[in-house]
Specification:
This protein is of the alpha/beta class. Helix content is 24%, strand content 31%. It has two domains: 8-37 and 167-228, no CATH class; 38-162, Alpha-Beta Plaits (2-Layer Sandwich). It has helices at residues 58-66, 131-151, 171-183, 210-222, and strands at residues 8-9, 20-24, 31-36, 38-47, 94-101, 106-114, 120-128, 155-162, 167-168, 189-193, 202-205, 227-228. The protein is elongated.
């Protein structure tokens, strides 16, 4: 999925120290996460003479091309919009929406709201598993917002903040952890994590309950071969 020069790769262990397993709540227990996404944040403000309603289609049109999707386990689900509800927010207010970009190689969590000065505020978090894909996804979102600003003759202010880098788990740690968990009877599966994660040799889902986390943490710590975070 990623190459060595586009994501931080652990590769093989470089010392005799116990490899680190980062426990990730909210992901099904015994799920080994081989990649953790990097993140970039985009914030844009569109201001002008035209009313907000003339620019309320930005995210919807982006979604028509990018295909809205349901969140994976561990992802926050966006609130559903209520049609026909008199108390619903104006149609230029769009809550956090998750869209796939670039054929699923990147993902954006994006929202749209009215600012204090009557301007339109668009906030997005772009996730991807390598820097090249991240850059292309950021450019795609920026281009769509810029086009909307130009069509509505709006004054556009936009900034991009780079966050966490994409990361790849240590292949040796993934192999050894898979073998150990499978041998103990855990239903192991491999997935990717669509959000940044703390640094470690490998990431492990521990479910959504405190008991599951305690059980897996105890198993990892008692093995003497791993260090749990």
């Amino acid at each position: 999925m990623t190459s060595a020069n586009t994501a931080k790769r652990k590769g093989s262990r470089q010392s005799a120290a116990r490899p680190t397993v980062v426990l990730i709540p909210g992901v099904p227990a015994a799920t080994i996460l081989t990649h953790a996404a990097g993140k970039a944040r985009i914030t844009a403000s569109l201001a002008g003479k035209e009313p907000l309603e003339t620019r309320n289609h930005i995210i919807r049109e982006m979604g028509a091309a990018a295909h809205p999707r349901e969140p994976n386990p561990g992802e926050e689900k966006a609130p559903a919009e209520k049609s026909g509800d008199p108390s619903a927010k104006p149609n230029h207010i769009i809550p956090r929406t998750t869209l796939d970009l670039l054929g699923g190689g990147a993902r954006v969590h994006i929202s749209q709201r009215e600012g204090d000065a009557g301007n339109l505020i668009i906030e997005g978090e772009v996730m991807a598993f390598d820097r090249g894909c991240m850059g292309r996804a950021v450019e795609a979102v920026m281009r769509r917002v810029s086009e909307a600003a130009a069509l509505s003759d709006a004054i556009l202010e936009m900034k991009v903040e780079r966050g966490a880098e994409p990361m790849v788990a240590c292949e040796e740690a993934v192999r050894d952890l898979t073998r150990e968990l499978s041998g103990a009877g855990f239903p192991v599966r491999a997935e990717v994590l669509w959000r940044p994660a703390p640094g470690g040799d490998v990431w492990l889902g521990v479910g959504g309950g405190e008991d599951g986390e305690k059980f897996l943490r105890a198993f990892i710590e008692e093995s003497t071969a791993w260090r749990a975070l």
